[in-house]
Amino acid sequence: MSNLSVNFCGVHFNNPFILPSGIITEVKDHVRAIEAGFGGVTLKSLTYERREGNPLPRMWKFDCGMINSVGLRNAGIEKGSEEIAVFLKEHSGKKVPILVSLFATKVKEFLYLVEKIVPLNPSLIELNLSCPNVEDEFGKSLGMEKGASGEIMSEVKKISGKIPVIAKLSPNVANIADIAKTCEANGADGIAAINTLGPGMVIDIVKRKPILGAKKGGMSGPAVLPVAVRCVYEIYDAVKIPILGMGGVMKVEDIIQLIMAGATLIGVGTATYYKGMKVIEELKSALLKYMEGNKVKDLKELVGVAHN
Ligand SMILES: Cc1cc2nc3c(=O)[nH]c(=O)nc-3n(C[C@H](O)[C@H](O)[C@H](O)COP(=O)(O)O)c2cc1C
Hints:
Elements: E1 6-8, E2 11-13, E3 17-19, H1 31-36, E4 40-42, E5 59-62, E6 65-68, H2 77-91, E7 98-102, H3 107-117, E8 124-128, H4 135-138, H5 146-159, E9 165-169, H6 176-185, E10 190-193, E11 197-201, E12 203-204, E13 209-210, E14 216-220, H7 225-238, E15 243-246, H8 252-261, E16 265-267, H9 270-275, H10 279-293
Parallel strand pairs: 3-4, 3-16, 4-7, 7-8, 8-9, 9-10, 10-15, 15-16
Antiparallel strand pairs: 1-2, 5-6, 6-14, 11-14, 12-13
Helix pairs in contact: 3-5, 5-6, 6-7, 7-8
The structure holds flavin mononucleotide.
Flavin mononucleotide (FMN) binds at residues 20-23, 44-45, 59, 66, 68, 70, 72, 101, 128, 131, 168, 195-196, 220-221, 224, 246-249, 267-271.
């Protein structure tokens, strides 16, 4: 019998499918992903201040993917950490690890967020070093540069205790492997990749102007899969820590590509907008069928095999 369970950074997941950050906005609504059968759930990135997000519309489907510019709409750390405390208390018995995602633009801010979150004891902390939708306001995102990523990671690791910390990286950089390597050297327990690709733009040809309120946005869904596969492949070559791979997964073949490139866990985000949360049960059955058909007992046997 094939086995879908996975160990990632010392945390046990019943299956490799993780809801990526931001796919659901409200903390309490993430229960939908737990009930749908995800192996793990990442909460929407939390920032120091409350953020209203970018002007509407914030999301748009194009032919082979989605473009969004949500702009990190969230309640901010004070209210957000209270909501997370309630959520973790309610759902920690369900054996579905919960990842808390944090975003900041300054090292000091990141440390404040981590200090507030550590006592709540989430399964993992994900540092979003890669949001493309807030650049205009703050200048270049911190994680676009390896020095800053390394400094954040090393400072965060001093206060994160036993909770594993992973770095979520952007594909919109010259050398993602280099940034991953720097994060690893500064104590990261794992890498998540990729955040959205871009920025891109879609123009409404009737109104003769960009569709998104913020004009530009990050791309997700099928269009970005080959970039995600390439990024995971390059990161796997550069580091020894495990990788949570995501970007464009719709079907079992996409999952296998990411695993063969080097991913241990798989994020499935935009596919839930196309197919609903039931996509997770479909992917689990398809993955089991693939494993049984190919005599794979444990997913470990496939991780990184494209490098051989
Ligand atoms: C509407 C939307 C909001 C997102 N918000 C966040 C966020 O707050 N933090 C983050 O790290 N990634 C965010 N992402 C990126 C996803 O977590 C994921 O990296 C990306 O969508 C690629 O996976 P997918 O193609 O399976 O959706 C967001 C993506 C979408 C579509």
